[in-house]
Design goal:
The protein has 557 residues and is an alpha/beta fold. 34% of the residues lie in helices and 20% in strands. The protein is built from 15 helices and 19 strands. The strands form five sheets. An eight-stranded parallel barrel has the order 2-3-4-5-6-7-8-9, surrounded by eight helices. A four-stranded antiparallel beta sheet has the order 11-12-13-14. It has a three-stranded antiparallel beta sheet with strand order 15-16-17. The C terminus is likely disordered.
């Protein structure tokens, strides 16, 4: 559901960086299939540009970006009146980075190279160790090289929020002269206030030579909780592109939330000089997909997509909403994909009712393949037979997430391979050290846990070892509970010392017979901040998704 375009309004370009900056969130790891699935959903959502990754970072990242360019770049499903999505790759101001980014994205019908270089004095002096003049020279050279490969070039002066505005104008003028068509102004550390950031955008639009030849863009971090406010201030002062992520995931405290910016523009059409072309009805299902695949839980009171966003506890509020929803709801729940329909599903429901409910929840069209639909329907019938109450929307979202996870992994989501010693590392202008993904070796065959009040917990785990073609069994006892016992048994079988960073269980809906959902983050012992996240419904699995094993937890009634 897009907003209305007035004659004096300009289109707001939505640049989504969930797969690049969003994946830099501590604890988030996405494999190639998961990235492609999210990219497809972003295309259906109506996103204009997707930053698919940082191709030079690793062979795995290059492959993911290249496959997104080839498989998602041409897609037009759900994009009525729009062009195919632009596929963008990030690059430092280094020729190898730029060439690698181009090689990864060049097969997309529409593609862009995003080049960045810091411009704040603190970065120039302490990180890059170059002068302002050397900075401008490098911008001109590297943007020019990118332009020789690709027409659509974006340049970002890293830490623009703390850069000298006069020097920033000079640096951006050099980028424009070299061929940049989009100028992104990052508040890299989330330092500025809305007034400061809005004034900076206005100053740059007015005082940068050749500014009329480029689109100005925002990129705000949420360290002080001002990312959305700063982005909206940028729009009000001349920015026509916004760099955002689903659920606001990203480095440290996160990035600007895509859904928050779009719904502000949508709700206040007379306030902002822009309109959007996003299908807002897909927000909730997109949010759930990113939550499930990234392992980053959405807080219940998160604006737009949080589980409490449209719930009313106060008696006064409930009374008002029952009389007229507009008394306490400024956004219609259905406009962002939160269903309020009366279609109840149970064990007697057929495929048609099931498909209709999926469409209500944002999973219509090509969101699910025929095989995925059939698998989801089979799981739905099993669940409906076991539940005393009907199948809820939360259960449906969980079923879809489970089916997608299973189909993407192709069975690998129930396996674990010891991680190689080498990991990806990228610092300054050093070249990255790469590690190839490992083939799956172990498959979980059986697990039994014995616990209770006043007893010592024990866990029996059976894994199939593909290399030895044998089933390996271990029994562990733990004083601290069944979770420790289970992990101890797995660790002894596979020979991996694991640190459990987080273990949380949540219900998909109310009632004793609801589905359970588990989120687990683990890392190799001593690995510190290199966790892997995994989730699952009614399954337990350790999987290899690169250099760190990923765990799909247990979800049981």
């Amino acid at each position: 559901m897009s907003s209305t375009s007035g004659s004096s309004k300009q289109k707001l370009i939505i640049f989504d960086t969930t797969l690049r900056d969003g994946e830099q969130s501590p604890g988030v790891t996405l494999n190639t299939e998961e990235k492609i699935e999210i990219a497809r959903q972003l295309s259906r959502l109506g996103v204009d540009i997707i930053e698919a990754g940082f191709p030079v970072a690793s062979p795995g990242d290059f492959n993911a970006v290249q496959r997104i360019a080839r498989e998602v770049g041409p897609l037009m499903e759900g994009r009525d009146g729009l062009q195919p999505m632009v596929i963008c790759g990030l690059a430092r101001s280094v020729k190898k980075d730029i060439q690698t980014a181009y090689d990864a994205i060049k097969d997309a019908p529409r593609h862009r190279i995003h080049v960045f270089l810091a411009t704040s004095d603190i970065h120039l002096e302490h990180k890059l160790k170059i002068t302002r003049e050397e900075c401008k020279a490098r911008i001109g050279e590297m943007v020019g090289f990118a332009k020789s490969l690709c027409d659509d070039i974006e340049f970002s002066p890293e830490d623009a929020g703390r850069s000298d505005p006069a020097f920033l104008c000079e640096a951006l003028a050099v980028a424009i002269e070299a061929g940049a068509t989009t100028l992104n102004i990052p508040d890299t550390v989330g330092y500025t206030t809305p007034r400061e950031y809005g004034s900076l955008i206005e100053h740059l639009c007015r005082n940068t030579k050749g500014a009329d030849k480029a689109v100005f863009s925002t990129h705000c971090h949420n360290d002080l909780g001002l990312a959305t406010a700063n982005t909206l201030a940028g729009i009000s002062n001349g920015a026509r592109q916004v760099e955002v992520t689903i659920n606001g995931i990203g480095e440290r405290a996160g990035n600007t939330s895509l859904e928050e910016v779009v719904m502000n523009v949508h709700t206040h059409p007379e306030t902002y000089p822009v309109y959007h072309t996003i299908n807002t009805r897909l927000f909730y299902s997109t949010s759930r997909m990113v939550e499930d695949l990234s392992g980053m839980m959405v807080q219940a009171n998160k604006a737009i997509v949080g589980r409490n966003a449209f719930l009313h506890e106060s008696g006064i509020h409930q009374d008002g909403v029952l009389k007229n929803k507009q008394t306490y709801e400024i956004i219609r729940p259905e406009d962002v994909g939160v269903t309020t329909g009366n279609l109840a599903l149970g064990k007697h429901s057929g495929r048609h009712a099931f498909k209709t409910k999926l469409e209500e929840l944002g999973y219509g069209g090509a969101a699910l393949s025929d095989a995925q639909f059939q698998a989801a329907f089979a799981k739905f019938k099993d669940l409906a037979d076991s539940k005393k109450t009907g199948v809820t929307d939360g259960d449906m979202h969980a079923l879809v997430a489970d089916v997608r996870s299973s189909s993407m992994a192709g069975g690998a989501s129930q396996s674990v391979t010891p991680a190689p010693a080498a990991t990806e590392e990228l610092v300054g202008n050093d070249e990255p050290v790469s590690a190839e993904d490992s083939a799956a070796r172990y498959t979980l065959k059986h697990m039994q846990v014995f616990t209770g009040v006043g007893v010592t917990p024990t866990a029996t785990v059976t894994l199939h070892d593909a290399q030895q073609n044998a089933e390996l069994i271990d029994v562990a006892v733990a004083k601290n509970g069944p979770i420790e016992a289970t992990y101890s048994a797995i660790q002894r079988i596979v020979g991996i010392d694991i640190d459990l960073l987080n273990f949380s269980i949540s219900a998909t809906s109310s009632g004793q017979d609801t589905l359970g959902k588990v989120s687990v983050r683990i890392a190799r012992a001593g690995g510190g901040d290199s966790p892997a996240a995994g989730q699952g419904e009614d399954s337990a699995a350790l999987a290899s998704y690169g250099s760190v094993p990923k765990f799909s937890g247990v979800a049981a009634n």
